[in-house]
Design brief:
The protein is an alpha/beta fold. Helix 1 packs across helix 13, helix 6 crosses helix 11 and helix 11 crosses helix 12.
């Protein structure tokens, strides 16, 4: 008789976020594999959409907001419950085996280090019932052990894959952003920890390039950046596109002169991998997980003084483009390390270790 695994994947409703991407790409990776001894159930607000794409490969459970509350938790007993991120409030009513995936514990620094804070208590409760724990990076594992007493259970580091598996035809894409100069590109959620303001400030000192940043800039941090752009007369050189679809994203990634990602707190960091897939020079902060992801051939900022950042940028660009063929090859090889089918196979192995 097959063992049953419940994947708490309701965050896939927003594929533009890191968690949404993780959930969807993990499902896609699992879909490509054989798991005859397991019955995998996906949790989603619109399971009919997933069923249309993935058919009877999976079972499906409909997520509702009420399921976040204890009284309305799923009553069915699953052999293994996979909590696919550390923040989800959806939990099983009956606990059998429990796998926790940790992306980061940034909430300790961003919200409160008080262990009685509700975010920390939620995470502690997850740790206490974990049969095993997976982390998306060595940094995420290190950070978790730094702040929490982690139970003595099996732990695994499984890197995320590259969400770009197909190069799209961007030949008919027309950018609303002027491309009269070579441009630098970045993309991500407009949160302070993404540190986009640092690269906007750097642009004051770089008149010969434009900067394009994609993401949900309607948030307060995006409004702050837009105000800085206006106050410093950068409107003709720094552009916020808002959210973009995959065609626009691949267009900007493939045409940019360099990709910038100055985040100061990152459990993994998918956008740099996407840019490496196109063989682009990558400029990252040297904080948290990013050196682990970028590897030895990316370029790193260790502080965010605008003139220092400009110096590192131009030194890196000179090095990259003076050795362009070799460096493009290095970046593409690095991106190829991160593969969702491989990651999904590793998760299946963890399921089996928990259950058999």
């Amino acid at each position: 008789m097959s063992k049953t695994v419940f994947l708490e994947t309701h965050n896939l409703k927003n594929k533009a976020t890191g968690l949404g991407t993780f959930n969807y790409e993990l499902i896609k990776g699992l879909y490509q594999l054989d798991f005859n001894d397991l019955e995998l159930t996906l949790n989603a607000k619109n399971p009919e959409i997933l069923e249309k794409e993935f058919g009877n490969k999976f079972s499906y459970h409909k997520y509702t907001n009420l399921s976040r509350h204890r009284l309305f938790r799923t009553r069915k007993k699953y052999d293994l419950w996979h909590s696919v991120n550390q923040n989800t409030k959806v939990e099983p009513f009956h606990i059998n085996k429990y796998l926790l995936t940790v992306h980061d514990v940034n909430f300790v620094e961003e919200i409160s280090s008080d262990m009685n804070h509700k975010a920390n208590k939620l995470f502690l409760a997850k740790l206490e019932k974990a049969t095993a724990i997976t982390y998306i990076s060595e940094f995420a594992k290190k950070q978790t052990h730094q702040y929490f007493n982690v139970p003595n259970v099996p732990e695994y580091v499984i890197y995320n894959g590259n969400p770009i598996t197909t190069i799209l035809d961007t030949s008919e894409f027309i950018s609303e952003i002027p491309l009269d100069k070579p441009f630098l590109y970045s993309i991500g959620d407009f949160l302070e920890r993404k540190n986009f303001l640092s690269i906007v400030k750097m642009m004051i000192h770089i008149p010969d390039f434009n900067l394009i940043i994609s993401g949900n800039n309607h948030k307060s941090y995006g409004i702050e950046i837009a105000k800085f752009i206006t106050e410093n007369n950068l409107q003709n050189r720094v552009f916020l596109t808002g959210k973009v679809d995959d065609i626009a994203k691949q267009y900007y990634l493939s045409k940019c002169h360099a990709f910038l990602f100055p985040s100061i707190r990152e459990g993994f960091g998918l956008p740099p991998i996407e840019a490496m897939h196109f063989g682009k020079p990558i400029f990252l902060s040297n904080k948290t997980s990013l050196p682990e992801i970028g590897g030895e051939h990316s370029y790193y900022w260790d502080n965010f003084d605008p003139e220092y950042m400009k110096t590192i940028l131009f030194e890196g660009l000179n090095h990259f483009y003076n050795n362009q063929n070799m460096m493009e090859s290095f970046m593409k090889e690095r991106a190829a390390i991160f593969n969702w089918k491989v990651a999904a196979a590793d998760y299946l192995k963890v399921y089996e270790k928990c259950l058999f």
